[in-house]
TrEMBL record:
PANTHER family: ALPHA_BETA-HYDROLASES SUPERFAMILY PROTEIN, HYDROLASE. Gene3D superfamilies: alpha/beta hydrolase (3.40.50.1820). Transmembrane segments: none annotated. It comes from Micromonospora echinaurantiaca. This is Pimeloyl-ACP methyl ester carboxylesterase. Residues 20-241 form the AB hydrolase-1 domain. GO terms for molecular function: catalytic activity.
Amino acid sequence: MTSPQAHLLSPGTDTGPCAVFVHGIEDTWRTWTRLSRCLGPQWRTVALDLPWRAGNDYRWRWSGGPGDWVGAGLEALGGRPFLLVGHSFGANAVLARLAAGEPRATAAVLAAPFFRPAEHRVTWETFDLSRETFQRQISDGMRLRLRRTAPPDVFEVMIARTCERIGPVGFLAVFEQYVASGHLPLSHVDIPAAILIGEADPGMFRPHMEALARRLPRATVAAGDDFDHFCHVNHAPEVARLIEELAAAGAGLRPTD
């Protein structure tokens, strides 16, 4: 396993807090640029470039799970404590890493994660709905990254080609993570955690998010009426304020002497 590259978005100050960002599937580390800018200048912010970035071939799956890849990226950051921030697939990768044990993480922000309570039965309907949600999120993410409107026929061709490249292997990476999420050992993840959800996110199911919060000893659900699946981009100032509040409530976010 090759360690994912870490990109420094903001150097922060020597005594300031540190945040490490984990992007979602078919996204890039640059997705965190705006959120980083919305945090105060004292923040050191680092974005990991994970192998599930946009355009990947999904061969990374045979070398380790998402949590393993996050762990490999964190190893290069030294012993400084940090707040972990993940989006969607990246949020679940953060969750897997925390379940495995990450002593340097002193708080976590999970933006638009997905969670299946262990008692929630997996059916073919579950599979089909998950695939529809996945394709919609891939489409919305591509539209967001384009930053301009493509002609509908051109955009549809782009989406079709992207979904063909991703294929079953890419979708199953997400679906298997969703299915396994309710079985993660989370009772020992004793750090402040915020689960960010949005009423404008069609893939969000609030009862499952509240179930996730109950599994984490110190988690809260933060809901925004206007938040969509990409709230970390489209509502970066509000998300930055939530991160600042979580940092203020937590301890150990600053470097130790």
